[in-house]
Design brief:
- This protein has 652 residues and is α/β, with parallel strands linked by helices.
- Helices cover 22% and strands 21% of the residues.
- The strands form 5 sheets. It has an 8-stranded parallel beta barrel. Strands 20-21-22-25-23-24 form a 6-stranded antiparallel beta sheet.
- A hairpin with a 5-residue loop joins β21 and β22.
- α6 packs parallel to α7 and α8 packs across α9.
- It starts with a helix and ends in a 12-residue tail after the last strand.
- The C terminus is likely disordered.
- The protein binds calcium ion (CA).
- The site of calcium ion has 9 residues, from β12.
- Calcium ion binds next to β12.
C-alpha cells in the first residue's frame, strides 16, 4: 500500500517545513494527493483569524511551496489542506515550535534561542554503550515536590538550578545527579504531547507524555510561557546546556510508533492514511500495535524520512546525545538502522536503545520488527532486558511473584545468563537459545523503570512480612546486580532513595502512574536523607563500575574469554571472575540471595570494594582465607595489578 506513491513522489530534500532567514521564509509541505494548500499567518497563537492567507503551489514530488518575504521570526502559521474536497486547518507536521497546545506552528530564528556559549559545546563522550549509566526521569517529577525547593517547579529550567538542598540539607536537582555519578539522563517524553492542557498550567496536571502531538516541538507545559513558541525552545536548550556542563548526556524518549489523535492528527489532515499502518491493505482498517489506536507506517519512504529528519533535528538543534524508542517492535529495522547511520555520522557518541516489543499485533512482518529477538538485525541498537528485570525481582505483572533477590532461588543459570549480558556464554550452552543479544552493548539491564511498580514497592508486595532492613538489603542486592552485570545499566530516578508510589492512605502502590497526581509521581527529595545509606550505596556502585573496564566489556568474545563462572559454591550463590580489568589483575564477584550468610574462601589476599553495606572505588578492608558473605548481598573482591598472584578460587 502506498508503494506507488513512494515510487512516484518520495522526496529527498532537507527543506520541508519553514526555512527561516531574516529576509524571507520558505514554506514547503509534502502532500502529493492534496487538491489545494494555503498558508495562514497569525501574529499570536491566540488569534482566531489569520492576517494573511497565501496559496501554495504544487511542484515536483508533490511538494507544495511558498516563499514569503520579510522577517517572519515569531509569526505563527498553519496550513489549509484540501483532501477529497474537504479543507482542514492543520499545524505543519514539520513545525519546529508551536503556540499553546500545539495547534499552530511558529517561524523562529533559532539562533536567538541559544544560551551564551552554546556553539562551543559538544556532545557528551561515550566510547561504548556499556560505559553509560542511564537515569530515567520525568521532567515534572524532578522538581515539582516542595521538598526540592525549586524555583522553576515542573519546568525545563529546574535543571539550571544549582545549590539547592532538601529539608535535611542534602543536595537535590542537578547537583544530585552529579553527586550520584550517572552519565546520561533519559528524559521521558519532552516533545509536545497532547493530554496536558498548556493553557491551564497553573492547575496541577500530569501525564507521562506517551501521547504525541508534534514530534519536533518541545512540550509547552514544561516552559514558562506556553503561549510563546520561543520560550519552550530557549528553555529546553538551557536544560541541555546545564546538563552538558556537568558532563551529563541527554537521551530523549521518542514515541514515533503512534500519535495521540488519529482522524484529527496533523498527519491525517495533511495526507489521509499515508502515515499510519493498515491491515490487509484496507485504508480504513488501522493497525493498533501500540495499543493506543494507531501505529505509524515506519517502512513507508516519507514516514521513514520524517522520523529520521525529526531525530536529526533534535540532535543538531538541541544537541541531544541519544534516543530511547518506545515500542520499538513497531519500527522496521531498516528505518532504525538508517537512523543510526545518519545520527552516528553527526555524533559518533550517540546511543540508541528501545523497548524490543510491541503493544499488540501488527501487520509489520515479524523479521522486520525491531524486537529483542531480532536484535542481530540492528547491531548498533540496544534493547531493554525484561529478562534481567524479571529474573532479579520477579515477574513484572504478577505483584507477588518473587525473583532471585527476594526469595525465588533455583534460577541460578538464568542469573548467570543475565549477568553476562544476554549473550551466549561458553559455560552456559543450554541457555544459548535464550541469548538474544550478540554483544553486551545490546542489552539494557534494569530492575525498575517508569512502567509498573518501583523496585521498592514490588519488594513490599513480594515480602510483606520482611523488615524494612531486609527489603533494603534486597534492593541493594538488585542494584548491585544491575551495575555489576555486562550490558548497559539503567535506573529510574529516585530508585537510589527507594522511590515509592503509594496511593493515599495505605500500603497499596500504583503500578501504572501515567496520569496519577504529583503526590504519587514526584521525586520526594527528603527520602534521599531518610535513606542516605542506600543513596551512597548506589553512588558507590556507579563509581566502581565507571572505574573498572571489566564491567563494561563491549564485545561477546571479551566476555567469553574474561568472565568465568565459579563452580562448587554454596547453594544458590552465583560467583564469577573477571580477568581483563584496567586496574585489577582479577575481580571476583559473589552474589548471595540467601537470607543467611555463607562461608567462602579466598586464596590469597584481596581488597573488598563492595559488600552488604558499602560500595566504592577504594578497598574497605581485605580478606584472606575463610570469610563470610552476608545474607542478601554481594561481595566484590579485587586484587590490584602489581599484587597479582596466580591462584584458583574454588570454595568449599
Ligand atoms: Ca503539549
Amino acid at each position: 500500500m502506498f508503494s506507488h506513491i513512494d515510487a512516484k513522489y518520495a522526496y529527498e530534500g532537507n527543506d520541508l517545513g519553514a526555512t527561516y532567514t531574516k529576509e524571507k521564509t520558505m514554506f514547503k509541505l509534502w502532500a502529493p494527493e492534496a487538491e489545494a494548500v494555503s498558508i495562514h499567518l497569525y501574529r499570536t497563537c491566540k488569534e482566531e483569524k489569520p492576517y494573511r492567507n497565501l496559496p501554495m503551489k504544487k511542484g515536483k514530488n508533490g511538494v507544495w511551496s511558498k516563499e514569503v518575504f520579510g522577517d517572519l521570526d515569531g509569526v505563527y502559521y498553519t496550513y489549509m489542506v484540501t483532501n477529497d474536497g474537504l479543507e482542514q486547518e492543520t499545524i505543519d507536521i514539520y513545525a519546529k515550535t508551536a503556540g499553546a497546545n500545539g495547534a499552530m506552528g511558529m517561524v523562529l530564528d533559532f539562533q536567538k534561542c541559544n544560551p551564551a556559549g552554546w556553539e562551543n559545546q559538544g556532545y557528551v563522550p561515550l566510547e561504548h554503550y556499556t560505559d553509560a549509566c542511564i537515569y530515567e526521569m520525568h521532567i515534572r517529577d524532578f522538581s515539582i515536590d516542595p521538598s526540592g525547593h525549586f524555583c522553576y517547579k515542573g519546568r525545563f529550567l529546574a535543571f539550571i538550578e544549582k545549590g539547592l538542598v532538601n529539608d535535611a540539607g542534602d543536595s537535590v536537582g542537578i547537583d544530585h545527579l552529579k553527586e550520584l555519578g550517572v552519565t546520561h539522563v533519559h528524559l521521558m517524553p519532552a516533545f509536545d504531547y497532547a493530554t496536558v492542557d498548556e493553557t491551564q498550567v497553573h492547575k496541577p496536571q500530569f501525564n507521562w507524555g506517551y501521547d504525541p502531538q508534534n514530534y519536533n516541538v518541545p512540550e509547552g507545559s514544561y516552559s514558562t510561557d506556553p503561549f510563546d513558541g520561543k520560550s519552550r525552545v530557549a528553555e529546553f536548550k538551557r536544560m541541555v546546556y546545564a546538563l552538558h556542563r556537568e558532563g551529563i548526556g541527554v537521551i530523549m524518549d521518542v514515541v514515533y510508533n503512534h500519535t495521540y489523535a488519529t482522524a484529527d492528527s496533523c498527519f491525517t489532515k495533511t495526507y489521509p492514511c499515508y502515515y499510519y499502518r493498515q491491515w490487509d491493505n484496507k485504508l480504513n482498517l488501522y493497525a493498533n500495535g501500540s495499543g493506543c489506536g494507531n501505529e505509524l507506517a515506519t517502512e513507508r519512504a516519507m514516514v521513514r524520512k520524517y522520523i529520521i529528519d525529526s531525530l536529526v533535528h533534535w540532535m543538531t538543534e538541541y544537541k541531544i546525545d541519544g534516543f530511547r524508542f518506545d515500542l520499538m517492535g513497531l519500527y522496521d529495522n531498516e528505518t532504525i538502522n538508517e537512523a543510526y547511520r545518519v545520527l552516528h555520522e553527526i555524533n559518533p557518541n550517540v546511543i540508541m536503545y528501545g523497548e524490543g516489543w510491541t503493544g499488540g499485533d501488527t501487520p509489520l512482518e515479524w523479521e522486520k520488527r525491531c524486537m529483542k529477538l531480532n536484535a542481530r538485525f540492528t547491531p548498533n541498537v540496544a534493547y531493554f532486558s525484561d529478562d534481567f528485570r524479571d529474573t532479579v525481582k520477579g515477574n513484572n505483572f504478577e505483584n507477588k511473584q518473587k525473583g532471585y533477590v527476594n526469595g525465588a532461588c533455583g534460577s541460578e543459570d538464568f542469573v548467570r545468563e543475565i549477568m553476562s549480558g544476554r549473550i551466549p556464554h561458553p559455560q552456559l550452552p543450554n541457555l544459548t537459545k535464550y541469548s538474544w543479544a550478540d554483544h553486551p552493548t545490546q542489552t539494557v539491564n534494569y530492575v525498575e523503570a517508569h512502567d509498573n511498580l518501583t523496585l521498592w514497592d514490588k519488594l513490599y508486595y513480594t515480602n510483606p512480612t520482611a523488615s524494612v532492613e531486609t527489603r533494603i538489603k534486597m534492593d541493594k542486592l538488585a542494584a548491585a546486580m544491575v551495575f555489576l552485570s555486562q550490558g548497559i545499566p539503567f535506573i529510574q530516578a529516585g530508585q537510589e532513595f527507594l522511590r515509592s508510589k503509594p496511593f493515599p492512605g495505605g500500603m497499596v502502590f500504583d503500578h501504572n502512574s501515567y496520569k496519577s497526581p504529583d503526590a504519587i509521581n514526584s521525586l520526594k527529595w527528603n527520602r534521599k536523607s531518610e535513606f542516605r545509606s542506600v543513596f551512597e550505596y548506589y553512588q558507590g556502585l556507579i563509581a566502581f563500575r565507571k572505574a573498572h573496564s571489566a564491567l563494561r566489556m563491549y564485545d561477546n568474545s571479551q566476555v567469553a574469554e574474561n568472565l568465568w563462572y565459579l563452580d562448587n559454591l554454596p547453594q544458590h550463590v552465583v560467583g564469577f571472575i573477571l580477568k581483563n580489568d584496567n586496574l585489577f589483575e582479577e575481580m571476583i564477584v559473589f552474589i548471595n540471595p540467601n537470607e543467611y550468610s555463607v562461608k567462602l574462601h579466598a586464596f590469597g589476599e584481596y581488597g573488598v570494594y563492595i559488600d552488604s553495606n558499602c560500595a566504592g572505588v577504594r578497598p574497605m578492608r581485605t580478606v584472606t582465607g575463610d570469610y563470610d558473605l552476608d545474607p542478601l548481598s554481594v561481595i566484590v573482591l579485587g586484587r590490584e595489578r602489581e599484587e597479582y598472584l596466580e591462584n584458583s578460587h574454588v570454595t568449599d
